[in-house]
UniProtKB/TrEMBL annotation:
Domain Thiolase C-terminal: 234-373
Keyword list, A-Z: Transferase
CDD domains named among the record's database cross-references: SCP-x_thiolase
Protein name: Acetyl-CoA acetyltransferase
Record-level Gene Ontology MF annotations: acetyl-CoA C-acyltransferase activity
Superkingdom, natural source: Bacteria
Length: 374
């Protein structure tokens, strides 16, 4: 794009069990805080993009939210790629700003499956439900089983991913689960759907998060405190159900990452940290390899050496990710990427200047990538 987009403001609610909160109220709180962070008046916003709530899908939700916020945006609506929606919406906002369709956009996600409905995560899965295949976790367990067939010691990598996320979440005062994890506890935990243990699986959470997107020039004009440039964006969509895939351990994450890295003119080795969608630990392992951070053997050794920690060679999910900060799908990873680039994360990576963020939806159906930097 000729003019660079920036994330000018970020906002979030509390995460966890939030009884009595509607998705509208959660979205409004996160959006208000994002605008306050950017020091932008609501009336200046002319774009509103929102992810459809998983816990309660409804028509015209974007217009409903705009009405509740007292806004009449000229650009926007609802977008749905599951957990990949957030980065994709940021990309759409950036392109709309470039094309003159809007000037300042709010991008937001809220959901309340913890105190509302979890039906979307527990539903029977197509015709295979007659054979007992029910719930999202069963789909990921199928993928994890194949991954373990190809890499028999992958459970050790899963464990090290979970331990790193939980260590970071323990230091994050906003995290839903602030309890470190050790090897013995990980190995003693129950199976949720074998081969995925309890600590391989993300949290179920109420909450919301939002960002303000505008051009770099507009941010300078408005004297935004700490804008973070969007260097690259990308998507890659598998668009086929799990049982129809030729290879269960390959997704289109590589296409998404290659698009974003090419746009940024950067490579994986240029990244100082990574916020990787961790709905399940197997997702992180597959994404890191697809992004070009190393082969399975290299990642395995990196995990064993503590390389996923804040002071490691590849710090990942430094706020705790979906495994520890909040299970709400994806936007919280963007917020942590922004904090790392601003230098104000509670688990700050020293001299962090470049960060890659991944989002993923469905059962690895969709993927989106965001590269942030200074």
């Amino acid at each position: 794009m000729a003019s660079r987009a920036v994330i000018a403001g970020i906002g979030q609610t509390a995460f966890g069990r939030l009884p009595g909160r509607t998705t509208e109220s959660l979205n409004i709180e996160a959006c208000r805080k994002a605008l306050e962070d950017a020091a932008i008046e609501k009336d200046r916003v002319d774009g509103l993009l929102v992810k459809v709530p998983t816990s309660r899908v409804e028509m015209m939700y974007g217009q409903k939210l705009a009405e509740a916020m007292g806004m009449q945006p000229r650009f926007g609506g609802v977008f749905d790629q599951g957990g990949a929606s957030n980065i994709s919406m940021i990309g759409i906002a950036a392109m709309a700003i470039e094309a003159g369709q809007c000037e300042i956009a709010l991008v937001s996600l809220a959901d309340n499956p913890k105190t509302g409905s979890r039906a979307a995560y527990e539903k029977p899965w197509g015709d295979a439900a007659d054979l007992g295949w029910s719930s999202v976790v069963a789909g990921y367990a199928l993928i994890a089983r194949r991954y373990l067939h190809e890499f028999p010691n992958a459970e050790e990598l899963f464990r090290d991913i979970a331990i790193a996320a939980r260590a970071h979440g323990a230091e994050n005062p906003n995290a839903q689960l602030r309890k470190p994890l050790d090897t013995a506890t990980y190995e003693a935990a129950n199976w949720i759907v074998e081969p995925l243990r309890r600590d391989d699986c993300c949290l179920i959470s109420d909450g919301a998060a939002a960002v303000v997107v505008m051009s770099e020039a507009r941010a300078k004009e408005l004297d935004v405190r700490a804008p973070v440039p969007v260097l690259g964006i990308g998507q890659g969509n598998s668009s086929s159900d799990v049982t129809l895939r030729a290879d269960l351990t390959k997704t289109r994450a590589d296409v998404s990452a290659a698009t974003a890295f090419a746009m940024a003119g950067l490579e994986p080795r240029d990244m100082d940290c990574a916020q990787i969608y961790d709905c399940f630990t197997v997702t992180v392992a597959m994404t890191l390899e697809a992004y070009g951070f190393g082969s399975f053997d290299a990642l395995h050794e990196l995990g064993r050496a503590g390389g996923f920690g804040v002071s490691g060679d590849l710090p990942i999910n430094t706020s705790g990710g979906l495994l520890s900060e909040t299970g709400m799908p994806g936007m919280q990873l963007v917020l942590e990427g922004v904090r790392q680039m601003r230098g104000d994360s509670v688990n700050q990576v020293e001299n962090a200047r470049k960060c890659v963020v991944s989002n993923q939806g469905g059962i690895m159906h969709t993927h989106s990538t965001l590269i942030l930097g200074q």
